[in-house]
Amino acid sequence: MQKPIYDFNLNTDLFERDKTAQKISDIVTTQEECSPLAIDGNWGTGKTDLCQRITQRINNDSSHTTQALYINTFEHDQSESPLLSLLAELTKILPESEDPNLWNSMREALKTSSGIIAKAALHHIFRIDADEAQSDFEESLEKQGEAYLNKQIDKLLEVEAKKANNLAMLKAALIKATANQTLIFVIDELDRCAPSYAIKLLEQTKHVFDVPNIRFILSANITQLESNFINLYGNSSGASYTEKFINFTIPLRTKSFVTNRRQSINNNSKYLLEIVGENYSSPALVNVIDYLTKTVRINLRDIEKLGRSIRYLVSNNSEFDLERDNFPFIALSAFLATRYPEIATALLHKDADYESKYFKRFSIDCHEEVGHYDSDIEYNYLAIKDWTPFACLTYIALEGYKNKAKLGLDDPERCTTAEEAIIKIIGRGHTFKNAHYAFTKVCEKLIF
Predict the structure, then answer these.
(1) Which residues share a beta bridge with 71?
(2) Alpha carbons 426 and 436: distance in angstroms, whole number
(3) Which of 64, 116, 333, 371 has the CA that lies 20 to 30 A from 248?
(4) Radius of gyration over alpha carbons of the chain, in Å?
(5) Is the Cβ–Cβ distance between 55 and 6 less than 8 Å?
(6) Are residues 235 and 347 in the same domain?
(7) Nearest by Cα to 324 from 437, 430, 433
(8) Could you read off the pLDDT tens digit of each residue along the chain, which spans 448 residues?
(9) d(CA 113, CA 97)
(10) For residue 429, is it within any domain?
(11) Domain residue limits at 382
(12) Are residues 370 and 305 in the same domain?
């Protein structure tokens, strides 16, 4: 049996998942009853990085005869056959020359379990499409005669019996092939693939691959996965359905925001610079990610989106220059546009409800150090107490410099304090009007 080869770049552990990978590897390789094991985490918490680390750790460990096979279901769900995806991974480590019996069993199982034969047979027998079978069955019965149809139905039953027999043969072949070794399927992105594909995969882990030395790690946002099933079924059975297939769950939480703040800043900065690449790296980016890590609960997906947005803006538009002193403002505008597009759109078009959208969202998502925002609807102004970069962005986006009373800046001293803070963000020498133009251009480029 040969080791599977995956193109994982895991030389660094920016988000400290290696220890978690080791613990999960130990559990799944030593505790058979814990399979299927689910890794439950929100989007952006590093589940894919963790799954790849687990796969690599298991395959690099020469102390035991365990192999890990990584599958990203989001990339495979168009095949409509999870069985095909799983067996395709097996072919990487079990060449036909080593186990021809297993390969023959796989072929026969795929022939009768893909659903293609069943649909073709139904179409041939009843001369109807499978999707119309229920409504046209009685009419076809009258036309062709009950005796004839019974004979054809018997043939369909034979196909189903053969299907069951082939799956049993496949299961027996899998047991034999894994008699002296353990195979672990690491299934990633289960919440992002098509719900029908996810359901089939879960069912096949239970009915086809339920053999002693084959185990599963399932990675997903379990709440989202259950919601997908509920939407598919049209009722509330999604949660209970998921529980049938998971024996052990490990919640994946983000690191403590306060305790690890400095480490988070360093890691997030490195990751952002890695995303944007050497040609687009700049000290200004480090300052931006420093601010975002301190004030907003930014996650891996946020950093990836921001990095790609910055690459796009800088590479396709000469007006977005990394060397300009207003670049931090550009980057903050890009972050707002990618993470909160509905808010950016409301600010851009000055929607009537921008107050509730913007201030309500940031009172929830911002760290308490950001400050507090008060909205006094009765007097129709927004009194911003702390002029953080996002508050400055609000001033620019809403063109507060045209109506200072709107933001409670009719006091000259308070107005001077605010505008000094804003100038630090947009860069000296840039007017508020130019900054508003830049914000508008960022939103227009990133919001479609």
Answers:
(1) 187
(2) 10
(3) 64
(4) 29
(5) yes
(6) no
(7) 430
(8) 555 555 556 677 766 788 889 889 988 988 888 899 999 988 878 898 899 999 999 988 866 688 999 999 988 877 777 888 888 888 777 766 677 777 777 777 666 555 543 444 334 333 444 445 445 555 555 555 566 656 655 565 555 556 566 667 777 888 888 888 889 999 999 998 988 889 889 988 888 888 889 999 999 998 888 888 888 776 665 556 788 888 888 888 655 433 455 556 567 777 777 777 766 666 767 777 777 777 666 777 788 788 888 888 877 676 676 566 677 788 888 888 888 787 777 777 766 565 555 555 544 333 333 333 333 333 333 455 567 777 777 778 777 778 777 666 777 777 788 788 888 777 777 788 888 888 888 888 887 6
(9) 24
(10) yes
(11) 261-446
(12) yes
Rounded to an integer, what distance in angstroms lies between the CA atom of residue 289 and that of residue 287? 6
Tell how strand 248-252 and strand 373-376 pair up.
unpaired
Which structure tokens are listed for 25? 């590897």
**What predicted TM-score, i.e. pTM, was given to this entire model?**
0.58
Q: Strand pairing of 214-220 and 381-384?
A: unpaired
Per the structure, the count of domains in the chain is: 2
Q: What is the CATH number of the domain that holds 175?
A: 3.40.50.300
